[in-house]
Amino acid sequence: MKMQLKTLPAALGLLLALHGGLVCAMDVSEAYHQALANDPASLAADQALVAGNEKAVQGDALLRPRVNLQAGVSRMHNRQTGELSPAASLLMPESGTGTVSQTSIQLVQPLYDRGAAANRQQLREQTALARTQFKASRQDLALRVAEVYFAVLVAEDTLRVVQAERDAVRSQRDRAQARFEVGQDRITDVQEAQARLDAVVTREVTAQSMLELRRAQFRETIGAEPDQLAPFASHFVPRMPEPIALSEWQMRGESRSTQVLAKQSEMEIASAEIAKHKLSGRPTLDLVASYGTKNQHGSLSPLVAPDGDRTGAIGIVLNVPLYAGGGLDSRQREAVARLGQAEQSLAAAKRDVRLKVQEGYLSVATGVSRIAAQEQALTSALSALEATIAGRDVGTRTALDVLDAQQRLFAAELDLVQGRADYLLGRLRLALASGDLDETSLESLGPWLTH
Hints:
This protein is α+β, with helices and mostly antiparallel strands. The chain has helices spanning 2-13, 28-38, 40-61, 86-91, 114-181, 187-222, 246-256, 258-279, 327-394, 399-433, 439-443; strands at residues 66-79, 95-112, 284-298, 309-319.
């Protein structure tokens, strides 16, 4: 019995590594690839990028030639009721009926249109915004994948720890019952052990329910079953962020964060909106070339409908806006206000990014010392349990003391599991806030997972 008790804490101390030898089919990076093909939000972002890229194409088209083709067919009947001279009577019969067809093609090439140029610049900025939003969606997906991935690992380890605690408490209950039956223990010891066992069984039900929920969230996000996930490595050595200076991370975030880049694009769009309305009142100059034909079939006079008429023209058209009811000035004032709004939104985004970078940095930096402290706490809890069991065997400690020591051990086990998950998620959140989160960031988690 004593040998079994000594084996128990040793097994508990290696609980996180017991499943490390399994052959895992999926790590975080592979889960991310699965989600790219199955996550609806990611697939929607793909289509949003395709649509956003077309904005630049539409902007370039504003200053390119426009070609129009017009064609028409009409049925005509004319009748002359007035008196005509003999010469005109030869060309204009009293009545005639026929079909008239006409075709024309026109080419317009803008030569000077500052408003269209400003509109093109705005559309290009909208394409840049769409690309930034696409990058942001990819980063959001990477973080969501990591969150559901580690949530499953934590839930699995939580259930294992609770089940191990259940078995340990049941063993203590059975021992107290056996000693009570031979008169060596009190009934209160049996009742206390039973109460602890009932509480652990309740926690086991909760842990099972939580695991099913986390697995469902994984399936919905990744589109695959979380049957074989790479667990936390048994030799888990956290590292400080590199570079070590928080200010460098914050500067990187202000220049590379997708949240800041999106606000910068919105400010550029608002600035282009001002230019568009300001320049829309400027004169425009277009090169216009056209060619047309007219033909008729029937008894219509050539004075009414020429037959075989060919017309070609080329020239320059100047358009000078004079008055638009005050709408242009109003839209320009609105655009100025929108620009001010965008500038303040950009300042707020930079502030938020600085705070998010600091939060992620502290999560990683404190995670290093936190995990070291949790590992030491686990070692101390193991030693305390062994000492308490030995004290109980010689009569200096009670069964209740053993139950308390076991509870502290399992609590330390769970704290370490959660601390490791929080550390890895902190690294990803720091990368997200600084604009560096990508597939490489997920692959960099490899040293902390067992493959």
